[in-house]
Amino acid sequence: xxxxxxxxxxxxxNQLFSFEDYxxxxxxxxxxxxxxxxxxxxxxKNQNDFEVAWKLARISxxxxxxxxxDREEKKKILDLGKTAAEKAxxxxxxxxxxxxxxxxxxxxxxxxxxxxxxxxxVKPIMEACNRGIKLNPEFEKGNFYMVRGRVFHKAPSVIxxxxxxxxxxxxxxxxxxxxxxxxxxxFYAELLLEQNNKEKAxxxxxxxxxxxxxxxxxxVENKEIKLLTKLKEKI
Length: 235
Description:
This protein has one domain: Serine Threonine Protein Phosphatase 5, Tetratricopeptide repeat (Alpha Horseshoe). Helix content is 75%, strand content 0%. It contains twelve helices and no strands. Helix 3 packs antiparallel against helix 4 (71-91), helix 10 packs antiparallel against helix 11 and helix 10 (182-194) packs parallel to helix 12. It starts with a helix and ends with a helix. Mean pLDDT is 93; it is low at 6-16.
């Protein structure tokens, strides 16, 4: 009986203190904006809630990356996402969510703020990815490896951590964990084309295009299909 009461209390507590993040509505500009504004408002009221913090980082990145055209507004939103992710890592450093969204937000934040900021964000991105991999290498279906691979791929080798072999290894690891990671196939194909390995690049492109459409993430899926199709046309 006591066990039943405890379970009921926990369920009631979760219901009282949970919030609607509208993440499932993110594939339209209206839905993404509502999700962002709702989660931002919740974070302003309760900055010590781990779930709210990492979810704000997640929707800030998604909304800025997919819908926000104004550069200054995008920078502001990504900065908020970065701040929320950093907060999540301090609230629960043993959980991968904060580290993952910190790495992702830092990557887009660096790109939005120019070359120098992009270079300065390399170290904290790598630290976040390495920390996350130690905690849970299969979190987000292996996406820590994809993000770290992208850094190895795009960072300059002389003044930063750029390393093509390590990038390839991480892309392959991400794909081995999740063979339906369309973005990982695209990243890997881009790298292979840069290395003039057209045969293997074509293989990655075909595999990426052959993945069934994930309707829950249709906006990103369709963007990736277009990018893969453009890569295919280059071969």
